[in-house]
């Protein structure tokens, strides 16, 4: 077994989702602009890592003839969610600061738990 499969993609995906969820939760407790920059950077780095890993694991989950469509549909819904998310966060951030932070970290932590239910596909032919 090579080093790339020692932990597997699922491990890093769970780590990415939990880490970005916890850093999003910590954004509520910041008191300085330096803390804001550090936590926002950690959140963005782990979220970006998670997005790339979602594409990698989706390629492993779907057979060859469906991979392109699956990744394209996932990307489309991700971009639609990003646009709608920016609008919703803009509406709620002034009136209810806790709501977008709580929703973001809840979705990320729930996603990390759901990743644990994915099948193990490393080095297995998909039928």
TrEMBL record:
This is Major facilitator superfamily (MFS) profile domain-containing protein. It is a multi-pass membrane protein. InterPro entries: MFS_dom, MFS_trans_sf. It is found in: Membrane. Coiled coil: none annotated. Keywords: Membrane, Transmembrane, Transmembrane helix, Transport. One of its GO terms (cellular component) is membrane. It comes from the Eukaryota. GO terms for molecular function: transmembrane transporter activity. PANTHER family: SYNAPTIC VESICLE GLYCOPROTEIN 2. Residues 1-123 form the Major facilitator superfamily (MFS) profile domain. The chain crosses the membrane at residues 12-31, 37-57, 69-93, 99-118.
């Amino acid at each position: 077994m090579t080093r790339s499969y020692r932990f597997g993609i699922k491990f890093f995906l769970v780590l990415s989702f939990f880490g970005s969820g916890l850093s999003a939760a910590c954004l509520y407790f910041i008191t300085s602009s330096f803390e804001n920059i550090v936590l926002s950077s950690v959140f963005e780095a782990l979220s970006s890592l998670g997005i790339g890993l979602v594409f990698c694991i989706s390629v492993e989950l779907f057979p060859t003839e469906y991979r392109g469509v699956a990744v394209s549909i996932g990307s489309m819904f991700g971009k639609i969610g990003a646009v709608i998310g920016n609008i919703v966060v803009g509406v709620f951030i002034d009136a209810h600061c806790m709501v977008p932070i709580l929703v973001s970290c809840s979705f990320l932590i729930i996603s990390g738990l759901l990743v644990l239910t994915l099948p193990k596909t490393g080095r297995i032919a998909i039928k």
